[in-house]
Amino acid sequence: MNEEKYITIKELAELKGVSTRAIRLSRGKYQTREITVKGGRSFEIFLSSIEPELQEKYYSKFVPSCTEKQLPAPLDFHKPDKAKTIALARLDLLNLWKNQRKNQQNKTQFDTDFLSAYNAQVLYPEIYAKLGKVSIGTLQRWKRVLGNSNNYELLIPNYHYEDYSRTCLTEYEKQIFLKLLLHPNKFSIGKAISLTQYVLKTQGAEYIPAPPTFRKFANWYKANYFDKWTLLRDGEKTLKEEVIPHIKRDLSKIEVGEVLVADGKRLNFQVINPFTGKPCRATLIGFLDWKSTALVGYEIMLEENTQNIASALRNAILNLGKIPKFVYLDNGKAFKGKYFMGSTDFNEVGLKGIYEKLGISTVFANPYNARAKVIERFFLEMQESFEKLLPSYIGTSIENKPARLRRNEKFHSEIHQEFVPTIQQTIQMINSWLEYKISLPCPNDKTRSIKEMVDSIERQEINPRELDDLMMAQEIKTITSQGIRFLKADYYNDTLYGLRQKVIIKYSLFDLNYINVYTTSGKFLCKADRITLTHPLAHYTGEIKDVEDYKQKIQKQKQLKNRTIKACKEFLNIEDLEILKCEIDEAEEIYLPPKIEVKKEKSEKYNPAVKPLFKTSRDRYEYLMKYGCTCNDDRVWLTNYKETKEFEEYETDIC
User: Fold this and answer.
1) Contact at 8 Å (CB) between 375 and 260?
2) Taking the model in full, what pTM does it have?
């Protein structure tokens, strides 16, 4: 029979072991209908809408003699193979019992003998291996549930359903437990259980479920409502990253070098601060090619700002040999700075930033959406396979810092090799690791390596000067006699000779061998090279290169001195002293300084003591043959040169 059956509030309360008030509060869980009772309106609950075990309990309690009522199997649940096997074994045992029982006069005695033989594994041992011991009450319940049907699914055990929690917890107990379990402070399951039991105890509950009962319900709830579990305990960010399905992109739609992804990473190891000389954590600003997953450009700086990002983009364009069409940027304030973009609002009319000048379109990632930026995965791999290999590694957090940084770890402190790299050393090590990284197969094209993907780019003609003007970091410095002092080094170019003014320098920590020098108005002055140190005893203990370096610097000093003298002489020769005369009428006794006459110097003879710079040994030999040796070094060199093979070839050519 499939007629609709409704039960009263009182009946459901007895089934669940709660008050009628609790049933009224949870009315929304069930299908109900309005009824008229004495004194007002009430409702009844549709029997098939309550929990399956409560339906079974209802028929066994309120309809004990019913043979036609059958509990419908929940058809929307998946039936595991093990549950089906148990149901079929139950049906077989039930049919054997019913068929043999028909012809028995003393059915009670038969039941006892049948179950004794079965439970002793004398009868039907294969069925016993699947079901275990069975009582007469269990057989009668199976018979009542099956009724006149032979549908074995009605005998499937409910506790095998994956989507249903068979628990004896009341709704009130569940509510208390879930409020603690789903608290944003993230109580552990064990702590939530103990607190729930304490609340029930203080409220005078007669029966308090055991911890395994609560734990089983908690595991079931987490498995079936993981979205609610995650949102309430961990928040929206975790829900988005771990529960909500990701959007998979078709990278075959883009080309290598077309889209660069940028972001900043705080390095998990210490470097030497070039400004203070002390260890610190630097920031790496990287630009990753989306298609090939190669880090095509980066910059190491002490903090994430617009100039660092610009310098990293400059390096990316130079290494890539191509200006990308799109740059996928982080949503941080440094990427959206006024200097970098040209305006706080990139879309303002008439204002263009560096990206627009280069023809690059920008796309900003959503805030706190790490999975949208593929460079995050690159940084994670860099952390695991590169940063952890360095002696100055300090960990990603307090919890996972190296043992040497924890208290009372004397052993690890003693065996630790104290080495903190400079910025230049860090760049060299990163470049070495990147050579290994690009040799791996490309994740987006397994048939080629990352390097082969990058090499396939059709390179453009890039003007480095334009990129330098736009993107290198800058500072204001003053020119001195030594040139420009920057990062404990001097930079010099002949253009700076005679200047004593403030200038703007632009530089990149990637290459500190030179800096670009501009006037404060923005005019390019020169490219100043880093001055190298000179051997203090070059002529006595230095090598040939030390001697030549010393001679070139002495020669440079003399050239600059002569240039100044020549300029002053030219100035005095062309100075028109007549402009000092005053145009007055009938002026008398006006004193004017005598006209300065500068005698023209006679052309000096070539002085052999001032040696030029020799490009080859043959040039030096011819010079000494023409002007003679002026010092012992020249004599020693000439003697050694005449014994060389080059001298023999030279003599042969002359003959």
Assistant:
1) no
2) 0.50
Element (H, E) at 515: strand 511-519
Phi, psi values for residue 50, rounded to 5°: -90, 175
CA 150, 151, 153, 154 torsion-angle sign: negative
pLDDT tens digits along 556-602: 788 888 888 887 877 776 544 444 444 444 444 444 445 445 444 44
Span between the terminal Cα atoms of the chain, in Å: 129
Q: How far apart are CA 132 and CA 405, in angstroms?
A: 59
Distance (Å, rounded) from C-alpha 280 to C-alpha 303?
11
Q: What is the pLDDT of residue 215?
A: 92
On the 0-12 / 13-18 / 19+ scale of CB atoms within 10 A, 442 is: buried
What residues does 326 pair with on adjacent strands? 259, 361
CB atoms < 10 A from the CB of 217, how many? 23
Of the given ranges (79-88, 365-374, 520-529, 634-643), which has the lowest mean pLDDT?
A: 365-374
Coil, helix or strand for 281? strand
pLDDT reported for residue 250: 79
SS3 sequence, 454-514? HHCCCCCCCCHHHHHHHHCEEEEEECECCEEEECCEEEECHHHCCCCCEEEEEEECCEEEE
Highest mean pLDDT among 302-316, 346-360, 519-533, 582-596: 519-533
Report strand pairing: 32-37 vs 259-272.
unpaired
By C-alpha distance, which of 407, 405, 410 is closest to 392? 405
Query: Which backbone phi and psi does 508 adopt, to 5 degrees?
Result: -140, 130
What gap in Å lies between CA 15 and CA 51, rounded to an integer? 10
